Amino acid sequence: MTVAASTPIELIRGVYASLDERFEIGRRRIDRPLTLAEKILVNHLDDPEGAALERGVSYVDLRPDRVAMQDATAQMAWLQFMTAGLDEVRVPTTTHCDHLIQARDDGRTDLLTAVEGNREVYDFLASVCARYGAGFWKPGSGIIHQVVLEQYAFPGGMMIGTDSHTPNAGGLAMVAIGVGGAEAVDVMAGFPWNVRWPRLIGVHLTGELSGWAAPKDVILKVADILTVKGGTGAIVEYFGPGARSLSATGKGTICNMGAEIGATTSLFAYDDAVARYLKSTGREAVADAADAVAHHLRADDEVEADPGAFFDQVIELDLTTLSPHINGPHTPDLSRPVADLGAEAEREGWPMEVSAGLIGSCTNSSYEDITRAASIARDALAKGLTARAPLLVTPGSEQVRATIERDGLLADFEAIGAKVLANACGPCIGQWDRQDMEDGVPNSIVTSYNRNFPKRNDGYATTHAFVTSPETVMALTIAGRLDFDPANDTLTNDAGEEVCLSVGDGEELPAAGFDPGEETFQSPPADGSTVEVVVSPTSDRLQVLTPFPAWDGEDITGLAVLVKARGKCTTDHISMAGPWLKYRGHLENISDNVYMGAVNAFTGEVGTGLDITDGGTRPYPDIARRYHEAGIGWVAIGDENMGEGSSREHAAMEPRFRGARAVIARSFARIHETNLKKQGLLPLTFADRDDYDLIGLEDRISVVGLTDLAPDEQVEVVITSPDGSTTTITTNHTYSADQIEWFRAGSALNLIRQRTGS
Ligand code: MIC
Ligand code: SF4
Question: How many whole angstroms from 244 Cα to the centroid of ligand 1?
Answer without folding.
Answer: 30
